Task: structure prediction
Amino acid sequence: MAPTASIRLGDKDYPLPVMVGTEGEKAVDVRKLRAETGYICYDQGYGNTGSCESAITYLDGDNGILRHRGIPIEQLAHKSDFVETAYLIIYGELPNAEKRKAFGMLLRQHAAIETQMQRIFEGYPTKAPPMAMLSSIVASLAAHYPDLATNNFEKDLASFELAAAITISKVRTIAAMIYRYQKGLPYVFPKQDLPFCDNFLHMMFTEPYKDYVAEPEVARALNMLLLLHADHEQNCSTATVRTVGSSAANLFTAVSAGICALSGPLHGGANSAVLQMLQSIYDEGDDGTRFIAAAKQGSKAGRLMGFGHAVYRNFDPRARIVGEACEDLLNKLGIKDPLLAIAKKLEEAALKDDYFLSRKLYPNVDFYSGIIMRALGIPVSMFTVIFAIGRTPGWIANWREVAANPKGRIYRPRQIYVGPVKRDYVLMADRP
Ligand code: CMC
Result:
């Protein structure tokens, strides 16, 4: 028999149903609490609030577990690639050969950015923040493909496969074009015959009269980085996508909102913050000791970036994979990066320090991912954009879950009002 819960308010008990997920995750269903009692649940930041039922990703932060559609991230990182994992996340199953080919074909067919859309780029200063450009250009997809973006769940779901492929493929092409636009370089258009990551690197780094051909280990490293970011349960940007999608806003609009949420330094912006932190430690000739001491002062501005996580309280399984891959890649490419040595030293020191241990602060996925991107030749200003390319399948899958849920409601949290109580309007002449 399912367990029950109740809440006692004054001398009255109110029974509440209990929900249990497929991995045993438990929740008390408070949906009727306000209607029955007049009380709401207060949970600033939603740290203890389940906002949806989802079949996409299982995350157990206490035990460092991350699985997409049931498959552990470690297996995907070592056996799959980004495009296949994107398919799994969006459609729920690994594709067979035929489905994988068709999905790849759709991505290839929709990789290019039409001339009219290219003109949007010219409206931006070349120093515009890349994430600001990315979010607005992705939002403009709704204007370029109005038939796929009707803001009607049923109609938008009917063209979902196409809209999803356009989003994944074009986010990558737009990202490469932002890079080239900012450098004042002519755009390089996607090549039909190149795999997803090779194509991205080709569009980024091709020089006049010199096609860029990615080394296999370089394309593999990028594949793995994107794959490790492909989804991460109800993080800030995914919750944003679901919130926006719940109003029946179309996929492109919702993904654009996700990109905005990702741009903050406490979320997707952390990977560039890590590299800036390592660089400043290097420039100051510190070995990290001073930085660690400062990070323990508790100021948000001085935090050890790449450490700590809102849900992992043991270790971030992605961080382990990235850490190993980082060393591996640098060895294969023969790169000796002094920032890697500083990062390793910081990690070693923090993992012995009671401040970090007692607060369960461990390296997160961003701690080493910046060093990999630097080795791939990707500038710091583009790091969060790379994260966005990786996270796109997760946003798409979550938008679809919201759109396809016949019982779904618009996301509309409540609040506890703490402002002034009722008072009268005062004419300006009488105001103090
Ligand atoms: N360096 C130093 N102290 C820290 C850090 C840090 N990186 N992170 C948390 N703390 C301290 C914090 O000051 C607090 O101390 P106290 O208990 O004395 O007040 C305690 O640890 C708990 O912190 P919190 O703010 O309650 O933790 P949170 O769960 O709200 O925040 C976080 C999680 C990721 C925002 C935070 O750890 C952080 O700012 N980390 C650095 C930024 C970063 O690397 N972000 C990337 C996250 S992974 C990418 C993703 O999946 O989005």
